[in-house]
Amino acid sequence: MSRRRSIEQERAGVAFSCVREVRGQAFQADYARLAASAPADIQANGLGQTLAFLRAKGSPAHKAIYLHIARWVAGALNLPAELLEHLVSKASSMDEYRRATAEAMAFLVWLKRFAEAELDGGRE
C-alpha cells in the first residue's frame, strides 16, 4: 500500500468519524452546509480567516467544523493544537501556511462527501 493511499484512507476515516459525531444533532444541516462551503471560503479568504470566522461565529455547527478542521490539520502536520494562533503568528512560515491550507482542503474533500451522504444535506 502506498503512503499516499494510506494518508487518503486516514483522512477519510477521520472525516467519517467527525460526520458521525454530528449525525442526529440539531445542527447537522448547518454543519453539512458549512462542510460544503468551507473549501470555497478557504480559496476566497484563506485558511486563517476562514478558521477565525468559524471560531468567532460560535454556533454549535461552526464550533464543530472549526474543531474538526483544526484538529485534523494540526495532527496531520504535527503543528500545535492551537492551530489558528500558530498560523497567524510569526512562528509559522509561509510554506507551513500553504501546507496547512492544502491539508485542510484535502480533508474537506472527504468531510464534504460524508456530510452530504450521512447527513443527507441536513434532511432527515
Layout: helices, strands, pairs:
Layout: H1 3-22, H2 28-45, H3 47-57, H4 60-76, H5 83-87, H6 94-118
Helix content range of the residues, please? over 70%
Compressed to H and E, one letter per element, the order equals: HHHHHH
From the N-terminal CA to the C-terminal CA, the straight-line distance is 37 Å
CATH homologous superfamily annotation: AF1862-like domain
How many structural units, i.e. domains?
1
Number of helices: 6
Provide the β-strand percentage band.
under 5%
CATH architectural designation: Orthogonal Bundle
Summarize this, please?
The protein is an all-alpha fold and 124 residues long. The chain is built from six helices and no strands.
